[in-house]
Amino acid sequence: MMTSQKAFVAVAGLAACILAAATPAFAQSPFAGMHGAWSGSGTIMLSDGSKERLRCRASYRVSSGDNALQQSLRCASDSYKFELSSDVVSEGGRVSGSWSETSRGISGSLQGRASGGRINVVADSPVFTANITLTTTGNKQSVSITSQGDIRQVSIAMVKS
Q: pTM for this structure?
């Protein structure tokens, strides 16, 4: 079984890339125009106060009238490497979906709301819960993820490649 720290890092990267697919509030769908490659970097802060740099690359496929998103993601820090995939839908201001981390065999769900260029979701799995906030300005996204586990905060900035 995976430690909660490794599970959180996996979900943090996944959530960052899923949520990085959001566009400004004036778009019909939070996934409109997101098809293609993305990359970004950020930091992971551990409960002891130490930080690590995180690097990510993602590929997005948008379908169903821009309301469904499939993504694949590879992220690495000095201590972690993981591969994630997700299927996410947006309907009436609600965002929901499922994710899996293939190399560790874990999975979970994402649920929340999108409004005014901001997305707030909760990512759940059997080993932890994380709160995720995304703010979009133009074609740049900032993601903040917090948890009470070994990893306390993740901050990631994504841009379309």
A: 0.73
